[in-house]
Specification:
By secondary structure, the chain is of the alpha+beta class. The protein has helices at residues 66-82, 150-155, 158-172, 206-215, and strands at 2-3, 54-59, 86-88, 109-115, 124-133, 140-149, 230-238, 244-251, 256-265, 273-275, 279-285, 289-298, 301-302, 306-311. It has four helices and 14 strands. A hairpin with a 5-residue loop joins strand 7 and strand 8 (244-251). It is elongated and about 85 Å long.
């Protein structure tokens, strides 16, 4: 998030805030933080620089508009400093509201939406949200949404607008806020009285640059993400008592080549069965209490076990 630190009533100044950063990494005099960190608070959650290009999609404005030119400047600056392969995608005329953004359908994309609807906070000129996949230290950024307040952008001169886009795109690739006003990731726009006093386009500070290096190509490729089974559901169909038939279904895990499933009746261990689709029927189970376990298998190995315990009622 970047706040507009100006005197106009529509854009009041806001105190320093770290936004949604959780336990940000901050080295002594480093001049940067990470928006997200893996367990332990040191390793950043970042995009995989080897996974292919990251599409930057502009919504609510065209690439030839002032907002589009500011975003193009920011894309070039992030690409140059981090080595991440950001690529401009076709612009969309309508903005995308936060509640309409589906990160699962936006994998590999940073959506930048210019909106007149406000950002929910009176002082916000911009707001960034990131979506990560994986667990623990295998987390990686998979999608991002940047929202730009159109009213602030219209009033700002070109260099302030460029700094706003640079700041929010920095969030989208993993940078957090820093209290040093010399860095682009400082959470406030320049004061209003400075808006007409310069024309030079903004540049990353030394802390910004070091943070981007640790988030980009210099940090190396991430290990392939192991597929994770989600939304496991078990339906029980009674047959001749006390035996039952169950149907297990689950969501397709990205990157899965096959699945392994087993049913453990109470006090026993079943055997793993390989299936090639997210569904399996088990017949004539002798127990009234059992656990269904499923794991996906991909090129990087087996993912974690997802389990559901089932207890049948009497009668």
């Amino acid at each position: 998030m970047m706040t507009a630190a100006i005197a106009a009533a529509a854009f009041p100044a806001a105190p320093f805030a770290t936004g949604a950063a959780a336990a940000p990494y901050l080295a002594v005099d480093a001049g940067f933080t990470f928006e997200r960190t893996a367990p332990g608070g040191v390793l950043p959650v970042r995009w995989d620089p080897c996974a292919g290009p990251i599409e930057v999609r502009l919504a609510g404005a065209g690439w030839a508009s002032p907002d589009g030119r500011a975003l193009k400047f920011a894309v070039r600056a992030v690409r140059s400093a981090s080595g991440l392969r950001l690529r401009r995608a076709e612009a969309e005329p309508a903005h995308i509201a936060a509640q309409d953004w589906d990160p699962n359908r936006s994998r590999g994309t940073i959506t930048v939406s210019v909106t007149d609807d406000g950002l929910g906070r009176a002082s916000s000129a911009g707001l960034a949200t990131t979506y990560a996949t994986g667990r623990g230290r295998s987390q990686r950024l998979a999608a991002g949404l940047v929202q730009i307040d159109a009213a602030t952008s219209r009033q700002a001169p070109a260099w302030v607008r460029a700094q706003l886009y640079l700041h929010e795109l920095g969030h989208a690739v993993g940078l957090g806020h820093i209290s040093d006003p010399r860095q682009v990731m400082h959470p406030q726009l320049p004061p209003l009285q400075q808006w007409d006093s310069r024309t030079a386009m903004p540049q990353w500070g030394p802390g910004d640059l070091r943070g981007l290096q640790l988030l980009g190509a210099e940090a190396g490729c991430l290990a392939p993400d192991k597929p994770v089974v989600q939304q496991l559901r078990v339906r029980v169909v009674r047959t001749a008592a006390p035996r039952v038939r169950i149907v297990a279904k689950w969501s397709t895990a990205e990157g899965a080549r096959l699945y392994r499933i087993r049913v453990d009746p109470r006090g026993q261990k079943g055997r793993w069965v390989a299936v090639d689709r997210p569904r399996r029927t088990f017949r004539a189970l002798p127990s009234r209490s059992f656990q269904v376990k499923v794991r996906a298998v991909g090129a990087s190995g087996s993912g974690p076990v997802t389990a559901v315990r089932v207890r049948l009622r009497s009668g």
